[in-house]
Amino acid sequence: MKVVVLCIVTATTFWILNALNKDDYNTVVDYPVEFSFDESRFVAVGEMPKRVEIEINGNGWDLLRKYFHINETPYIIELGDAGNTDYLMSADLKRPLSEFISPTQLISILDDSLKFNIDRIVTARLRPVLDSNSFTLAENHRIISKANFNPDQITVSGATSILKDFEGEFPINLDEKRIDKDLSKEVSIEVPKGLQGLLSLEDDKVEVSFEVVGFLEGNQTLNPVLKNFPSSVTIEGEEEPMIFYYLVDSREIEAFQEIEFEGILDYSQRNQEDSTLTIQVNPLPDYIELIRIEPSLVKLRYE
User: Fold this and answer.
1) In the prediction, which pLDDT does 62 show?
2) Could you tell me the pTM of the whole model?
């Protein structure tokens, strides 16, 4: 049995070796390719094709090496003005690729074209803006001034299509929580995640400053004032107090304390469908934020 097995193995080996020495075999392989372009002027946006599927004819040993990617030398595809196209027709590759893989014969390139995305590199100056998701304010606090940045423009170089997506603005990550006072901070800036290698920054820091003020929460009873009411119309629950809830700028407390607030009920502004009337607070200076009024509207009663 051992002799039989040895004979079979030996015969099979000689048969395989003899077969691989023959020519005129066809097979399909994925041949490696690389793109060459001026990387100082252009950048690849997305993954570039790394292999092209081709049908070849040749010696058994040669086809075996190509099939198993043994000692393969990638075919270099030269792209001149790379930013003017996003594909390359396979027909344009057939002749130079055929010469490159000689003595193996190229029968056909199975893909019609090679698609890629290479973008021109440009430099843009973007306006820094606060990323609203990168900070929070303390309860009842507001930013009352425009955010100031130094420098007031961020110089960014990179792919044209990606810079267009920024729409002229560069988001600044403040990384602050529960801000309750004026802020002045030097912030490190970096290329957003996922865009490394596609963009580069001239500056790595920016100084951010803005003013913050606290608002005080309170409530007051309104003095009802009736306007344009006919004598035959009254308000249901007229004795019920009207209370408005507010936030007031802490810097304006003195001015606030001098105001007598009224609840204006203007009959001409009534809702004729359900005979209700909305209460309007007067005066309402811009340093007061109205939260709500209870009741928010009143029901009219006709005699």
Assistant:
1) 63
2) 0.69
